[in-house]
Amino acid sequence: MKTAFVCDSTLQVSKEFCENNPITIIPLEVRLNNEVYEDNVTITPEEFYSKINDGMKPSTSQPSVGKILKVFEDLKQGGVKRIVAFSISNKLSGTYSSFSQARDLISDIDIKIIDTKQLAKIVGYAVEKIIKDFSNGKISYEQIEDEYYKLYNQQNILVTVETMEHLYAGGRLTKAQFVLSNLLNILPIITIKDGLLAVNGKHRGINKTLTKICEEIKEKNPKTLIILYTNDELLQKAQDAIKKVFGDIEIITEIVSPVIGSHAGPKAVGIGYLQYEK
Fold first, then answer.
1. Do 49 and 266 form a contact (C-beta atoms < 8 A)?
2. In terms of Cα–Cα distance, which of 84, 61, 60, 59 is closest to 71?
3. pLDDT value at position 111?
């Protein structure tokens, strides 16, 4: 039975993987000065960060139900009988809701929608592994959701930001927290717990914060580390912290997509880990 996969752009499944596997990416949108761009399609991360460093204020929106429905209908017309759709955490975006509404508007096709409860490339690797394992017959269609959550429990990401401006603008910090953090250079360690952002600790200065992140991750005995970054300076600092704490370990680097960067800001860096072979 012909099966296809759908994924939203924030999960950052690689273009090369998409070219060689039955997966369609549906982009979220980012708005800058009244111009709307498709995430990682009509604007690259580098272009996006250049614009917000020049003072442009971004906002984002989920894909429309109509856009998703069109993808589902096109796949159905192509002979697809089953679709598995992966969405950014339902608690962080309305994308899951849009997927669900689109599913309810189409018949005679089996559509499974998975709330990944996470975001960014940390999910992308799990999605890629599941599609490869399904294509190779290692897992069945019925096992896909359970398999995703097994991987979900073996991965996560810890993030910090050098400026709280975008978190404050997005309602994640009170004014008092914002002012105090700026004055004392106190940076948060933010993780994802049950689909929501949660502050896992606070430390003074970027280098100490990145070291603490690495020390926390080392306890997980990771097989692979993933640096998600918004500028080259923070990428280098994260690499230095990893070398200091881990020595030699596989590191993958990925610039954060514009939609995620809209909320994290241009001075954010995260270190994710996988406890499984990707």
1. yes
2. 84
3. 98
Higher-confidence residue: 179 or 257? 257
Task: Read off the pLDDT of each residue in 86-99 and give the average, rounded to a whole number.
Answer: 96
What does the pLDDT average to over 165-187?
54
Q: How confident is the model at residue 185, as a pLDDT?
A: 61
Per the CB < 8 A criterion, the answer to whether 173 and 164 are in contact is: yes
pLDDT of residue 66: 98
**Pairing relationship of beta strands 224-229 and 251-255 according to DSSP bridges:** parallel
Which pTM does this prediction carry? 0.91
pLDDT band at residue 20 using 50, 70 and 90 as cut-offs: very high
pLDDT category at 194 given cuts 50, 70, 90 is confident
Rounded to whole angstroms, the maximal C-alpha distance in the chain is 60
Three-state helix/strand/coil letters over the chain: CCEEEEEEHHHCCCHHHHHCCCEEEECCEEEECCEEEEECCCECHHHHHHHHHCCCCEEEECCCHHHHHHHHHHHHHCCCCEEEEEECCCCCCCHHHHHHHHHHCCCCCEEEEEECCCCCHHHHHHHHHHHHHHHCCCCCHHHHHHHHHHHHCCEEEEEEECCCHHHHHCCCCCHHHHHHHHHHCEEEEEEEECCEEEEEEEEECHHHHHHHHHHHHHCCCCCEEEEEECCHHHHHHHHHHHHHHHCCCCEEEEECCHHHHHHHCCCEEEEEEECCCC
> What's the Cα-to-Cα distance from 278 to each of 46, 124, 255, rounded to whole Å?
27, 10, 19
